[in-house]
Amino acid sequence: MEIIRIEKVTKVFHMDGEDVRALRDVSFTLDAGDITVILGPSGSGKSTLLTLMGGLSSPSEGRVLCKGKSLYDMPGEELALWRNKLFGFVFQSHHLMPELTALENVILAGQIARREFGICQERAAALLYHVGLKDRMNHKPGELSGGEQQRVAVCRALMNEPEIILADEPTGNLDVKTAEGIHDVLWELCQKEGRTLIVVTHHEPLAKRADHILTLHAGQVTKKKS
Ligand code: ADP
Ligand code: MG
């Protein structure tokens, strides 16, 4: 079943009197439960595409549909509700709260969504357990390695059971082996829970395991395996 439809999307940024065309007439669809890898050189429009899909930035032309609804034709408040309910984000830097423990950081995401504390606690602990951080739950981010911090960020993104996970170079700062470990848990959790995963990465071997590969060059999809 189709979950995301990108329809003739163009995104132009205006910078110092110049137009930067970050995306040019991009169209594709993704099905629920699929894993998609987005590849492409720096500056090719990968992050821009992800923010458009996640309801964070509107296209200059074209439409972004999620579950049949055109995201940027909704009133802002409705879009914010959709975004919080539908999407989980993982970024290159984890943005964890330094003064909170790993467990508290993950629980916080649930509390922001006004979920009951006991339920938050249970799910947060289960997720951290699953990514191999059983013995690190009560450590603060500063006491964790880069890879462990990113695992916490993965748990936080999954905390509220979003249908779609958008990950923008989640392992960009990590060595290859650590990166593979993160991708493994992200992959496995999304598959286990039936979530749609869209991940931007430079790690090409990963792409082989994906259902779809989108390759961007200068704002255009140049290659698509599906
Ligand atoms: P990637 O993630 O593939 O490295 P981006 O989507 O970040 O590429 O950027 C695509 C192009 O759009 C680049 O030329 C970049 O400089 C430009 N760009 C991205 N965001 C902005 C912005 N907020 N303002 C101006 N230009 C931007
Ligand atoms: Mg980027």
Considering the chains and any ligands shown, give keywords for the structure:
four-stranded antiparallel beta sheet; 226 residues; binds adenosine-5'-diphosphate; binds magnesium ion; six-stranded mixed beta sheet; alpha/beta; Rossmann fold
Assign the CATH superfamily: P-loop containing nucleotide triphosphate hydrolases
Order of SSEs: EEEHEEHEHHHEHEHEE
Biggest β-sheet: strands ordered side by side in the sheet: 6-7-8-3-9-10
Low-confidence stretches: none
Coarse shape: globular
Task: Give the domain tally.
Answer: 1
How are the SSEs ordered, and which strands pair?
Elements: E1 2-15, E2 18-31, E3 35-39, H1 46-53, E4 61-66, E5 69-70, H2 76-86, E6 87-90, H3 102-112, H4 117-130, H5 146-158, E7 164-168, H6 176-193, E8 196-200, H7 204-207, E9 212-217, E10 220-225
Helix pairs in contact: 3-4, 3-5, 5-6
The structure holds adenosine-5'-diphosphate and magnesium ion (MG).
Magnesium ion binds next to helix 1.
Model description:
It is a single chain. Helix content is 35%, strand content 30%. By secondary structure, the chain is α/β, with parallel strands linked by helices. It has a single domain (34-57, 86-225), classed as Rossmann fold. The strands form 2 sheets. It has a 6-stranded mixed sheet, with helices on both faces. A hairpin with a 2-residue loop joins strand 1 and strand 2 (18-31). Helix 3 (102-112) crosses helix 4 (117-130) and helix 5 (146-158) runs parallel beside helix 6. The longest helix has 18 residues, at 176-193. The protein is globular, with a radius of gyration of 17 Å. The structure holds adenosine-5'-diphosphate and magnesium ion. Adenosine-5'-diphosphate is lined by residues 13, 15, 20, 22, 40, 42-48.
